[in-house]
């Protein structure tokens, strides 16, 4: 019970600070009799934007819970950009404001015209960014990479399509995945790999799993479609994108395996398969690092997963999170595929992810292993992408 209480308290404190900043700016921008009405409207909008995610996280799975989750996610994007930008402006102007107050005898305030201008610019910026981000999030692009075919000891060309982070959830519709499937099949892939986070912490959010499965099973590859689970392919309540229960209490929905099978995908859970038609390529799939699920406290060590592998055998690793990157080549992995990062999804998350993470996006060489990380197809939390793309990654081995 301690974790949810602490998270809710932190959320309420941040929400109260954001609401106070927004209401203060609105009060300053509108003088006279309209001030009280504007303050009430501003406070109501702030409370709605902040209360919906909280209600969605606390209510049990069902129509009411999904309603608040859906609209909480929609409101979260504007709330983040409006309140976040306002908070940064307040922080960066704190010293100049103190200086001006000292010079004016402690009576200086932001001029009303300036306050009205800041408010108008913030509202316009927030609307433009979120509308453009919503359109961008639903536009599936193709990102292409090339490596020598000798990377996986192939004698002929091989085309692999990597998709990840579908995040089917309360803000999803089959239309996005129809576009994804169409883009995938246009590539005429030899092999399709799905790097986890198929759903967003709630299998029931699909409402009609067969509608999604009927779309996803249309993906075709000469040598099959293989998938692993991600950290969100479990059942857990979320508050602002963070789990209220923690990894130890998250369980897999009993119908999740059947759903993956109905899509026509081969699920790999700390196991590997040999693809004899691809020069004996070993394809290894790992459980998620932070939330392995299925009653497993920790996923298998990579050295155990690859135990008995011939050093000359080509090895392709599929795992949700790009982890243990420096060890992959040492343990015999030639090529590894991951998702999870979303490439930060919304600015400035993309900048921070590339600075802080070992590899948040793209193709990079780690010792004797090449690692490809995709930004994924779906979205998590706010149904927008700003500064990143929704993509399928195509790797040609030539």
Folded structure, characterized:
- It is a single chain.
- The chain has 398 residues and is an alpha/beta fold.
- It folds into 2 domains: 134 residues, no CATH class; 256 residues, Purple Acid Phosphatase, chain A, domain 2, CATH 3.60.21.10.
- 41% of the residues lie in helices and 16% in strands.
- The chain contains 11 helices and 14 strands.
- The strands form 3 sheets. The protein has a 6-stranded mixed sheet. Strands 8-9-10-11-13-12 form a 6-stranded mixed sheet. A two-stranded antiparallel sheet has the order 5-6.
- The longest helix is centred in the first third of the chain and has 30 residues.
- The chain is elongated and about 80 Å long.
- The protein starts with a helix and ends with a strand.
- The mean pLDDT is 90.
The ordered H/E elements are HHHHHEEHEHEEEHEEEHEHEHEEE
Report the helical percentage.
40-55%
User: Which CATH first-tier class of the largest domain would you pick?
Assistant: Alpha Beta
Q: What percent of residues are in strands?
A: 15-25%
| Secondary structural class | alpha/beta
CATH architectural name of the largest domain: 4-Layer Sandwich
- Mean pLDDT over the residues: 90
Annotation field: number of helices: 11
Largest sheet: 6 strands, mixed
Number of domains: 2
Number of separate strands: 14
- In CATH terms, the superfamily of the largest domain is Metallo-dependent phosphatases
> What's the end-to-end separation, in Å?
54 Å
* CATH domain topology of the largest domain: Purple Acid Phosphatase, chain A, domain 2
Low-confidence stretches: none
């Amino acid at each position: 019970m301690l974790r949810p209480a602490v998270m809710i308290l932190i959320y309420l404190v941040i929400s109260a600070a954001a609401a106070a900043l927004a209401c203060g700016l609105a009060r300053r921008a509108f003088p006279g009799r309209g001030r009280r009405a504007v303050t009430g409207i501003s406070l109501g909008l702030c409370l709605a934007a902040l209360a919906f995610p909280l209600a969605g996280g606390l209510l049990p799975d069902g129509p009411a819970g999904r309603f608040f989750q859906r609209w909480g996610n929609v409101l979260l994007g504007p709330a983040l950009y409006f309140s976040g930008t306002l908070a940064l402006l307040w922080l960066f102007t704190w010293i100049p404001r103190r200086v001006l107050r000292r010079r004016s005898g402690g009576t200086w305030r932001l001029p009303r015209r300036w306050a009205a201008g800041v408010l108008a610019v913030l509202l316009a910026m927030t609307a433009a960014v979120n509308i453009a981000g919503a359109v961008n999030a639903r536009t599936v692009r193709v990102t292409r990479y090339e490596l020598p075919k000798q990377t996986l000891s192939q004698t002929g060309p091989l085309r692999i399509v990597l998709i990840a982070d579908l995040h089917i959830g309360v803000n999803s519709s089959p239309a996005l995945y129809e576009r994804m499937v169409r883009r995938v099949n246009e590539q005429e892939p030899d092999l399709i790999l799905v790097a986890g986070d198929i759903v967003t912490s709630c299998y029931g959010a699909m409402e009609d799993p067969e509608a999604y499965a009927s779309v996803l099973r249309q993906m075709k590859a000469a040598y099959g479609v293989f998938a692993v689970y991600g950290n969100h392919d479990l059942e857990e309540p979320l508050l602002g994108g963070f789990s209220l229960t923690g990894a130890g209490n998250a369980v897999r929905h009993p119908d999740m395996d059947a759903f993956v099978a109905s899509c026509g995908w081969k699920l790999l859970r700390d196991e590997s398969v040999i693809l004899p038609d691809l020069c004996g390529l070993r394809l290894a799939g790992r459980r998620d690092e932070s939330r392995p699920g299925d009653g497993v406290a920790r996923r298998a060590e990579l050295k155990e997963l690859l135990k008995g592998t011939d050093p000359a055998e080509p090895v392709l690793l599929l795992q949700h999170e790009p982890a243990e990157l420096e060890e992959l080549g040492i343990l015999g992995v030639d090529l590894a595929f991951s998702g999870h990062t979303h490439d930060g999804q919304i600015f400035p998350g993309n900048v921070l992810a590339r600075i802080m993470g070992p590899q948040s996006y793209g193709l990079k060489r780690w010792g004797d292993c090449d690692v490809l990380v995709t930004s994924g197809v779906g979205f998590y939390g706010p149904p927008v992408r700003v500064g990143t793309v929704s993509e399928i990654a195509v790797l040609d081995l030539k």
